[in-house]
Write a structure and sequence with these properties.
Elements (H helix, E strand, L loop, with lengths): L10 H9 L14 H13 L4 H14 L3 H17 L3 H17 L3 H17 L3 H17 L3 H18 L2 H17 L3 H17 L3 H17 L3 H17 L4 H16 L3 H17 L3 H17 L3 H18 L2 H89 L2 H10 L5 E13 L2 H5 L4 H21 L3 E6 L2 E6 L8 H19 L12 E15 L5 E5 L1 H11 L6 E4 H7 L3 E11 L3 E11 L5
Parallel strand pairs: 4-6
Antiparallel strand pairs: 1-3, 1-4, 2-3, 4-5, 6-8, 7-8
Helix pairs in contact: 1-13, 2-3, 3-4, 3-5, 4-5, 5-6, 5-7, 6-7, 6-17, 7-8, 7-9, 8-9, 9-10, 9-11, 10-11, 11-12, 12-13, 13-14, 13-15, 14-15, 15-16, 20-21
């Protein structure tokens, strides 16, 4: 075996890009025990039990089986029996286990569907503790497909709920998974805060699986910081614990990380051994995502060893499994499911509040009536006259206030939602999610914003952000684009919705150039209170799903693979540059001068072609 060139595979990018970090899936909270599953399986196959006992047996099999295929079979049987016997507690757990099995098999769309059903059952029965659990599993699915924003949102919602019910096991899991997501975005300080709290809880309750995952997480952070000795010590200890308790599927992830470390140390023999073992475990337990990633890692190692025939063989296997679990149809289905689920939650809240308001209103009316009757006995004529005058003034004043508030509400609604969407919301009380076949999405992000913002007071920080985003809003409005939202120092907008247009790609490119020019001009300002930044810009074009959720704070948002790729374009851009995807490039190449950057590795997407847009072609100018 030939010695590879050092740093040909960069661990800092690959270890997290290839696997996206492992997750402490909430199914592990239930302490999978294969020995217990084997014993229960013998009882179940014998058929020597009552129907009521069958619930407990199927529950134990779905809970303890580490084989995703069998876990799916038993959880599905449990769903049918629990539905037949009207057992809510078993039913929500069965859907949760079914979702976990589907997720491990790479069927993310149906996994999310099962976890949402589990969440709906907990909401209907007002089971707050179980709702926290359901939010963790939904966050797990979003993490698997690389949707960092949604996964963090559901993990933090779960943490807030579970702290109230004091479920140590569940809180530790949610904290760990949230920390894992921060590792994915390379926010290591935030990750360590979450890991530290979860580690203390896992040790306190003697959870070996949770402790193993915490060790592995710290090992990967050490590897990112090129402290490979501590990295290997932590990861090997995590593997040892998992082998001791016979929990093999997560070991497949750890072995890939060990392979990455071996590559960094120019030890391709060890790297191959680790990866082949990872692939063997992934095949044994039907872990599609791990099979795909292990094949990709083997392809890279053989390429480093200049064995192109073997490299090509494993790369083909990687593509076959990758394409089976990641496609735009799945992402769109998941976006629709999330929209419907969140809209349903908000509608349930509205119905509850309306009923509560009606009850309070009836109580108020009854109290007022009793008051009027008691006063009328002594001062009927006088109070009738005074009451009539006051009532007239009150109604007149109230009607005036109602008209003013209605006008303000309509004006505010038009400020945060497109006019067409606002009208639909007023008429029907909700907005149906819509699919758009062609939309251009742009992300911007200030470089090293967190580091620079530490030198500013909170007032100056808000003033600086408002200075930039106000100008961005002005530019977006100029080109009839739709502002979607801001997340911290990130700005997101889109063209081609809510009304489809044919020139949205060109308009969003023009807006991007004006934003970049404004950033450059702002550097010339002589102001100590306005901080200047460098900016990255990324654009992608394709289909999206758009909709509105909320009853008090409405939010118009878009989902889909197009949005995720646009975000990746921004992350892989350079200061002052406009980075576009291959599909956007094809739409603008005849008019704009574009610079081909080659194929760039993108998280959960593999290699993608990217282009810098430098300006209009000379003929256009």
């Amino acid at each position: 075996m030939k010695k590879p060139y050092s740093k040909l595979i960069n661990f800092k990018n690959n270890a997290f890009l290839i696997l996206g970090f492992f997750l402490l899936f909430y199914s592990l909270i239930y302490s999978q025990d294969q020995k217990k599953a084997d014993s229960l399986e013998l009882i179940y196959d014998s058929g020597n039990y009552k129907e009521q006992d069958q619930l407990k047996i199927l529950n134990g099999l779905a809970k303890n089986h580490i084989d995703p295929e069998k876990q799916l079979i038993y959880s599905t049987k449990l769903i049918h029996l629990a539905t037949k016997l009207d057992s809510t507690n078993y039913l929500w757990f069965a859907y949760s286990m079914q979702g976990t099995a589907l997720r491990n098999k790479g069927d993310y769309s149906n996994a999310l569907k099962s976890h949402i059903k589990a969440a709906q059952i907990t909401i209907k029965k007002n089971q707050i503790e179980n709702l926290g659990t359901a939010y963790i599993t939904i966050g797990d699915v979003y993490s698997e497909i690389g949707n960092h924003y949604n996964s963090i949102k559901y993990y933090n919602n779960a943490i807030d709920i579970l702290r109230k019910v004091n479920d140590s096991h569940a809180i530790a899991t949610a904290l760990y998974n949230a920390g894992d997501e921060y590792v994915n975005s390379k926010k290591y300080d935030s990750a360590k805060v979450y890991f530290k709290e979860s580690s203390i809880i896992f040790k306190k309750i003697n959870d070996l699986i949770g402790s193993a995952y915490n060790l592995g997480s710290l090992g990967l952070i050490y590897a990112e910081q090129e402290n490979y000795v501590l990295a290997k010590e932590n990861i090997n200890e995590a593997i040892r614990i998992l082998e001791e308790i016979k929990n093999y599927p997560p070991i497949s992830d750890f072995l890939i990380y060990m392979a990455d470390i071996s590559i960094e140390q120019n030890d391709l023999v060890s790297a191959l051994n680790y990866t082949h073992r990872s692939l063997e475990i992934a095949h044994k337990y039907g872990l599609k995502k791990n099979i795909s990633e292990s094949n990709l890692k083997l392809s890279e190692i053989y390429q480093l060893d200049e064995n192109l025939q073997e490299s090509y063989k494993y790369y083909k296997d990687h593509i076959a499994y990758r394409d089976s679990i990641t496609n735009i149809v799945t992402v769109l289905q998941m976006a629709d499911q999330r929209t419907n689920f969140e809209v349903q939650i908000e509608q349930d809240k509205v119905l509850f509040l309306e009923k509560e308001a009606m009850i309070n209103e009836l109580k108020d009316k009854r109290n007022k009536t009793l008051t009027y009757i008691s006063f009328a006995t002594a001062f009927f004529i006088l109070l009738l006259a005074v009451g009539a005058i006051k009532r007239y003034r009150f109604i007149k004043k109230t009607n005036h206030l109602i008209q003013e508030e209605t006008h303000k509400s309509e004006k505010l609604l038009l400020n945060i939602l497109p006019e067409e969407t606002a009208q639909e919301l007023k008429q029907s009380g909700k907005v149906k999610a819509k699919k758009f076949n062609s939309v251009s999405v742009m992300f911007t992000d200030f470089i090293e914003f967190t580091r620079f913002s530490q030198d500013l007071t909170p007032e100056d920080l808000v003033k600086s952000v408002d200075f930039y985003f106000s100008k961005f809003d002005e530019i977006i409005e100029k080109y009839n684009l739709e502002k979607i939202k801001t997340i911290g120092d990130a700005y997101m907008c889109a063209g081609g919705l809510p009304f489809p247009t044919t020139d949205h790609t060109e308009k969003i490119i023009q807006a991007a150039f004006e934003i970049a020019e404004f950033i450059e001009e702002s550097k010339k300002l002589d102001s100590k209170k306005i901080k200047t930044f460098e900016i990255r810009i990324g654009i992608n074009t394709g289909p999206v799903v758009a909709g509105v959720v909320g009853t008090k704070k409405f939010a118009y948002d878009i989902w889909g693979d197009t949005v995720n790729v646009a975000s990746r374009m921004e992350c892989n851009s350079l200061p002052g540059k406009i980075n576009v995807s291959e599909y956007t490039y094809k739409l603008i190449k005849d008019k704009y001068d574009c610079e081909y950057r080659g194929q760039v590795p993108v998280k959960n997407k593999g290699m993608m072609k990217m282009y810098f847009v430098n300006g209009l072609k000379k003929t256009e100018v």
